[in-house]
Design a protein that fits this description.
The chain is of the alpha/beta class. It contains 13 helices and ten strands. 40% of the residues lie in helices and 18% in strands. The protein has a five-stranded mixed sheet with strand order 7-6-8-5-9. Strand 6, helix 4 and strand 7 form a beta-alpha-beta unit.
Amino acid sequence: MNRRFCVTLLLAATLALSSFRVAEAEATLKIRIAWTVPVANWASILLAKKELARHLGQSYSLETVHFGGTPEMITALATGDVDIADLAYSSLGLAIENAGMNDLRIIGDELQDGVDGYYSQEFMVLNDSGIAKVEDLKGRVLAVNAAGSAVDIALRAMLREHGLDDRKDVTIVEAGFPNMKAMLLGKKADLVTEVLPFAADPGLREKAHDLFLQKEAIGSAQMLVWTARARFLAEHRAAMVDFMEDTLRIVHFYLDPAHHAEAVRIAAALTKQPPQRFDAWLFTKADYYRDPNLIPNLDALQANLDTQQRLGLLKAGIDVKRYAELGIVREAARRLK
């Protein structure tokens, strides 16, 4: 075998191996999923149990992307910077009506607020604030995480129900959920929006109390849903079924009471908080309700969007079922049976 022939064989083998690696890389879908609140949002803790994700690194890879609020995710979806957005019912309506995302699809449940026997988000005031009823908020500063977020809509609904103009009678400011405690205790806001896990802070609960709960403002809410663009789902259906199968397996792990201690350890490590902060409520009935098969409550979601329209925050009605694509998560669930 002459030298030239050997070199030719070596080059051919190298090219073949390179082509195989390129094809393999192209076959692995990179899924970028957005989240806002640590632990409360599944995306923040999925990779902590990646050993349960049998298809990870095979048909897909996963990147989790943090946002300050769900309205920011609308832009990220529009620009293609994320593939799955964890939208609140409020930002879902804005994405469809204001951003013109008629191809937006609801693909799964994240969490539900105010379900009978489960947690509902809190609107808190200082014990010595002198605020005893909603009407006492007139002229005060109220903090939400982002304009147009679910808690923002609930707050505005409550104000209007009690005769207050949310644009003229109060000042609404934005602050990240981790900063709400400091805003309230530092008297930079008279009312703050508290969500788990931040609401469980004993230092906060010692000096503040609920003025009202979110469910008192808008009833039961399909608080957050996973959403994606229709084209993305159509082009990558097989990989998405694999991803949702892995997600369901991880969700079932976290929701199983037998794994409570490990779930608490993971939450504590992620947030750099003591385990005691989570032990009494995490993934119990003192927590949000999460559907174990990631099936959202579309009737509750419809009612939430109808509330937005009634408040004048949406111009037209939105038929939620038109935007639901639950076939992928249902197919994934069948694989686990």
